[in-house]
Structure formats: C-alpha cells, structure tokens
Amino acid sequence: MWLNMYNKINLTKRIDQFFIDYGTYSFPPPPLPGDADIVPITTIKDLQDEGAIMHNCVGSYTEKVQTGECFIYRVIRPQRATLEISDTGDMHHICHLKLADNEEPSAETWEKVRFWFASAIQVSYAAESLFISHTSSSTSLLQPASPL
What we know:
The protein is of the alpha+beta class.
C-alpha cells in the first residue's frame, strides 16, 4: 500500500516538474495521425499512465517525446500494446512495439501496426506535398521524399 502511495506522489512530482521545465503538460503534435486502434499519447499524464498500465519504462521517455526524438502511441487492437516511433531527422521508423511487461506482440498485431504506419506515412507525405505545392512556386518541390 505504501508503494502505491509513493508511486502516486512521485508521479505528481514528475508531472509538476515537467510543467515547470516546459510550461505545458502537452507534447508536440505527433507526426503521424492515429486511428481508432492506434492513438498518439499527447500529454505527460497519458505517458506516465501508459507506463503504469503496461508495466514498462515508457514513462521515463518524457524528455525524448518532448524534444521530438520519439513519439509514443497506445495500440488498442488487436492486442493492447505500446508503440514507439523514432524520428531520425529525415524519416520515421518503428522503434519498439511491446505488450504489457515488455512481452512480444503477435504477428497479427505487428501486421496491423505496419499497415497503419505505411498508410500514415503516405498520408503525411501527401499532406506535406500539398502544403509545399501551395506555398512554393518551384515545381521541383512538389515531389515528396520517398517514405520508406
């Protein structure tokens, strides 16, 4: 019982310190849109809750998410999992996909996540192309970089 109380106090301190450091409880917007089954985690509280619920260390990724080094998503179906998308500067890639207690997901879950990722990358690049085509007179900028 005392351990649960300690964890709640420690969580509150981490959230309060995050606000002091960054002036917000929210992370920068994720680069890829979520869907009904794969939901971006956009606040420090949600990130801390994800770590507690899934019994993993994702709650310690606060700085990495805040700086855009990675983005965390909650996978609802086909299995409940935590997904990390990393940003290498010129592209995004799937870094980790883990079930509770860092167990490995099924092939079905991997397939769902890969399909979502490929679709989201295409949507992201298509939107970027539209933005560039409306803000630039140079036709050389109309083609997006290869997503994969």
